[in-house]
């Protein structure tokens, strides 16, 4: 009886494990694998064996608009490239995995991409924290990784195979500080930092440096974490110190509630932020359009109002492809990451043995990405610098109603 | 001094939310000696329920401008709160009836499901290997399953103890919690994406920058803070009334004192337990709506986890099973957390240590009073 019991128990355990494996396997396979590839089949010019581009992003979770925007942008780029004949007749196909905004699953899905899907290169992530988690795996496997919009300097410092098509935080933090001093005439600033987020701590550091260099004072720098619900205490301390501006370099999920609680306490000074604010959900969290965030500013990669034809063509194509959905800067950067990658593959030339994923070819591709110069992207001209970062201007946007209005451009 | 009072009020605001959730933990522990780990997730469902109700109310009562700023809509807000509380009451009832009651009354059910499924699978495989047709394979599997369940049921009823050990209920509670979180996480249910409450009570007009404040102890406090504090206080008063002045309250106290004796006195203990779960769930649901609508924080399937954990600690600090203790524990936790954020830096404690300090407080209090501040110290009966 005992033996049967234990056999049963072992079997049950096995069954449970097996069913969990099946369920989780299904769940992981689900995220629209190769959606973009199917777009490539409609043209008829690109008919060769597809070249796989890996992508990981937060398609769900608390930063889900980051991942979905980037994904839509990248797919638009891939579809355009395939419609124009692909790369030497090979269509590009995107294999995308959802990391739910969690550092551990970012690493897991990237390892899975590298080992199982054999991509030519990998595009991702938006959040610096997640890029920093996954980049060492790409670098070790010598798979070029292009982050569309991770701005923390540490990301590309991980190794020679890690690139980005956006500016970095020392510049973004400086741009915000310059704007605060020159346009808002701020002398005293308070900063609210998400202490567990590399992006937020990085921006805090560079904003502080630049702001104090220009003669300003940081009067308070309290911190919060992603799980916090109550920011009253920090905000009350800030209010007592009477700053001219409050810098909140966080993600949209927390910025809305922080703004709302700040206004509840009677804080009337403008809030200032970074590209982590760039989400259609931002104003929703602040009580909706015209509420707590009205009139606040943030630095971003590009403005969709820019009349530059490169940007307007992208906006038009994006709206056509996404049933009139408005693109944000993260979508534009996803698009640029795809375009820069395709351009680099073309410049790297055809592999002699026809294998786009061999180590020799990926090294060649790496060099081609590093040599990108003045590429006309949807977020401006992209030149990859010596430290594998793109050098680009930043724009300052103002929250007006549910829209982000262009205010000014800050050049590097 | 002025600023200290202000911070103290924020502490009380946060603490009264912890207290509301802690009451659910403490009451269920009182009647069942069970830590209901799914309680934090009831808070989460309450927030979603309120959000759904807000959209429905916004559609039904457009004249109340639930979504427009500047116009308070007391009727809409009250309806939203009541809807969320009703949803949570139902959820509390379902959790108790579906997950915990079978463990108390029919202990054979859990092994019957697990062992039966395994045996049925083996039977199915054997039958399938013998090339029988699929329908008869399924039939054989079901017969085996039924037989296992019957054997377990009859063997169980012959024993004297038909109640599963307390640990089983505890693990079931963790299971229910995980189920609720992951169920809410599904793409077809709530999805993991954050959602935000529309404005129910108006906030200061940002164009004119006039905060809507109430003066308390010489401090201007926002309307939202006062609402959270006032509503919590009212709910706790109603709870106290129910527990101390009504017949069902008397029954709850009797069951928590001695369940077996209460049953012998003619009290329907199962009904009392169900009612206690509903009462706790209602308070958690109200807390969920109040926090997410008034402080504007995001709603996602995991918001119940940190809140549930801290409320549980609050209940333990106050002495689990003791109703005033839960309120006291909640207030201590809330005030301690806010004080760390506000003044911790003066004594070298960074404000990121707010949770650490709260849990350190737990250890400290349990070292001095192992049964909590208001808990009764009773030696185990042998």
From TrEMBL, chain A:
It comes from Capsulimonas corticalis. Belongs to the leucine-binding protein family. PROSITE patterns: PROKAR_LIPOPROTEIN. InterPro entries: BCAA_transport, Leu-bd, Leu_Ile_Val-bd, Peripla_BP_I. GO terms for biological process: amino acid transport. Keywords: Amino-acid transport, Signal, Transport. PANTHER family: LEUCINE-SPECIFIC-BINDING PROTEIN, PERIPLASMIC BINDING PROTEIN OF ABC TRANSPORTER FOR NATURAL AMINO ACIDS. It comes from the Bacteria. This is Ethanolamine utilization protein EutJ. It holds the Pfam family Peripla_BP_6.
From TrEMBL, chain B:
One of its GO terms (molecular function) is L-valine transmembrane transporter activity. It comes from the Bacteria. GO terms for biological process: D-alanine transmembrane transport; L-alanine transport; L-isoleucine import across plasma membrane. The keyword Chaperone does not apply. InterPro entries: ABC_transp_permease, BCAA_transport_permease. GO terms for cellular component: plasma membrane. The keyword Cell inner membrane applies. It is found in: Cell membrane. Its main location: membrane. Keywords: Amino-acid transport, Cell inner membrane, Cell membrane, Membrane, Transmembrane, Transmembrane helix, Transport. Pfam families: BPD_transp_2. It is a multi-pass membrane protein. CDD domains: TM_PBP1_LivH_like. Belongs to the binding-protein-dependent transport system permease family. LivHM subfamily. This is Uncharacterized protein.
